[in-house]
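Design review, sub-item: ligand-bound model
Attendees: FS, YL, KQ
YL presented the inputs for the 2-oxoglutaric acid complex:
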Amino acid sequence: MSLVQAARQAESAEAFKHIPIIDLETVSSSDPATRKSLGNAVREACMNVGFLYITNHGISEKTIDDAYKASKEFFSLTLERKMQLDITKTSNFKGYNPVLSSNNDPENAGDMHEGFEFGWEELEVKTNDEKRAHDGAMAGANVWPKDLPNFRGAVLQYYHAAVALGKKLFPLFALALDLPENYFDDKTRNSAAIMRVLHYPPQTGPVDARVIGIGAHTDFECFTLLWQEPGIQALQVLNARKQWIDAPPIPGTLVVNLGDQFARWTNDVFKSTVHRAINRNGVRRYSIPLFFGTDYDVMLEPIPSCVSAERPPKYEVVTAGDYVKERLKATYGY
Ligand SMILES: O=C(O)CCC(=O)C(=O)O
Ligand SMILES: [Fe+2]
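KQ shared the predicted structure:
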């Protein structure tokens, strides 16, 4: 079945109720047929749901735990200290955004979370950072808290582990699209990946429906790898019938969800699915998304097999960097 036919079938099918769990144990198998069958499972998830859980993802518990503890420590700093890293003082969307300063859903009045955002950087500290000049629209260095010695190392360690995992996923997405496994290699040379650590204060009592943890939105890049704090339900995914489906944290898994770059590239054969998070658990919640994009200079042109006479191109062609920058501007309002 062609990609376009498969997409049409998925679109007319019953709206999804469950998010599939995919075991990555065989992701690096030397047997092409084994990798292809994993690719097929990914294809189904990408066309039907746009969300999946992965097990055997290879990021160690220690790496996760260190990043989690470091982010908790960061958010426990005074607002004044965190505001020294105010994201709106940087030209490249790096740094801290306080509660209610971002807004992911234009219908809403602000997101009830605070976050800290950074991009690629080597683990070893460089005195003369080259400012990632090749990143065009998104060029520029990260900013770091000065007097929190373990924070940078812990979150960057997680970043590098997640990027290594993301690099293993791209060949699977290529297989899912009947493309050569190395199709994305020359489009993902510079790790255009943005990571955020997030803190959602609990919302109790009467809650303004226009102020929730993170308003309904799609992510901007190809896909997101999301770690959620165990034991706390907050994330929800919208299915085609406009029903919100819970996406609870499942021990040992990460969530993978597709974003707009893949939707644009595949002419919506891959779904960039709307999601939101609401923390009504009475306790704080932490999460760590890493948004994995293509290099910022890559044009988001539809893959030829995702276009046909009855499925003409849906999106204007733009560069990945310009697209992400526009969306970040809208979210952070600067
Ligand atoms: O915290 C979560 O579970 C979701 C975060 C999210 O959707 C985002 O940062 O784009
Ligand atoms: Fe998101």
